[in-house]
Each structure stands twice: as structure tokens, then as C-alpha cells.
Amino acid sequence: MAGKYRVAILGLGGVGAFIGGKLAAHYLNSPSVEVIFIARGANEQAINANGLTLVSSLGEQVVRPAIVSSNPSFIGPIDLLLCCTKAYSLADSLAPFADCITSSTVILPLLNGVDNSEKIRGILPGAQVLEGCIYIVSKLIAPGIVKQSGDFYSLHFGGAAAEGQLDAILSLFKDAGINATLEDDIVGKLWAKFSFISPVATYTSAHNISIGSILQDAGH
């Protein structure tokens, strides 16, 4: 592998900022891995000025990636793209960075839903696209500040693309202290999460309550 392995995170919300922050913290001075935040607006300005603050039950940590930018020309070619945008803005978010995606780029979506990989293949037909999902309670509470609630989260990924690279990607996560699992049946995992989130989100939205309130009230 010539040069550094370049990992970019697209979508610096609760998921992207947390996973990206863990990667940036571990690989800050790495001779072999470079972490890139694709951010814009107030988020880009705040992270460039003050770094990204990770808040969790373990305390606070300020991390700085190698690059924070919204300029595709400045970002350049990407080896692994973690796509953490909202599903409804997937096409608009990805399109500006098409020139950063090569035939060897691997894209891992970490969005709610079961058809995001298919959508990405439609937007970028030449890309190698995996399947992925994450269980986490995390939120961007201010530009450049992400808060994870609770002590548990888990990232799951897999798929037929990127043959020969899956174990290396798993090691990339594990070495950074990320609770990741390479799944033999990742599609089943996506459907399991979708089947859980759909009724819970509908119920909490309809009653304007949290899942904690449901669990505490026998009436719910």
C-alpha cells in the first residue's frame, strides 16, 4: 500500500462524530492511517478551531483528525468512506465527493434502513459498497461537540464487496477501541434493527415520549 490508508467520515452527526472521533484519537500520529472529517458550516469551523469534543460516561476527550474539510479537491482520493448522513440526504451528500471515490474505495453506510447500500450503488456504480448498521445513543449537542449516552454501543458490518479487505477494516475499528463485529449475515442484522426501530420510533413519536418512559410505564 503506497502512502497512508485514508479513512473519511461523511456526516458528522451523532454517529459520524462519535465513530470518527474514536478513529481520529487513535490514529492521530499514525504513519499508516489518515482520518478525514468531511464537515461543513459551523461544524467544520468549530472542529478546525477547537477540535472535536467527545463526551461519554468515561468523561470528555478532545480529538483532532488529520483533515477537516468540505472541499472535495482538498480531500482527494479516499480508501474507506464511512457514510453517516441521514438517509433522506444520502444522494445530495455523496454526489459532491464522487471524484474522491475510486474503483478501490470501500464505502460503509452506517444509516438506519435496509436499502442504503443499494442506493449508494445507484449513485456511485463503480464503488465497492458494504452493508452496515450501528446501535448507539449519540447526539451532536453543539458544533464540534458529540455526546454518547449509556455505556453500550455496537457497530456491525459485512457484505460481498471489498473481498480481502474485511478483516483489515475490522482491525482498523478494533485497534481504535471501537466495538465492531464482522457479520456473516449482515442483511439479517439490518432487518433485525429495522424491525426494532420502526415500531419503537412510531410509538415514541405518536406519544411524544422516550423509550425509557415506555419501559417504566406498564400502560405503555
Overview of this protein structure:
It is a single chain. The chain has a 6-stranded parallel sheet with strand order 5-2-1-6-7-8, sandwiched between helices. A 4-stranded mixed sheet has the order 4-3-11-10. Strands 9-12-13 form a 3-stranded mixed sheet, sandwiched between helices. 35% of the residues lie in helices and 29% in strands. It has helices at 14-26, 41-50, 72-75, 90-94, 116-123, 166-175, 186-207, 211-216, and strands at residues 5-10, 33-38, 52-56, 59-63, 67-69, 78-83, 101-109, 128-129, 131-135, 138-142, 145-148, 154-158, 180-182. By secondary structure, it is an alpha/beta fold. The protein is globular and about 60 Å long. The N and C termini lie far apart (55 Å). The model has no long low-confidence stretch (mean pLDDT 92). A hairpin with a 2-residue loop joins strand 10 (138-142) and strand 11.
What distinguishing features does this structure have?
220 residues; alpha/beta; 4-stranded mixed beta sheet; 13 strands
SSE topology:
Layout lengths: L4 E6 L3 H13 L6 E6 L2 H10 L1 E5 L2 E5 L3 E3 L2 H4 L2 E6 L6 H5 L6 E9 L6 H8 L4 E2 L1 E5 L2 E5 L2 E4 L5 E5 L7 H10 L4 E3 L3 H22 L3 H6 L4
Parallel strand pairs: 1-2, 1-6, 2-5, 3-11, 6-7, 7-8, 12-13
Antiparallel strand pairs: 3-4, 9-12, 10-11
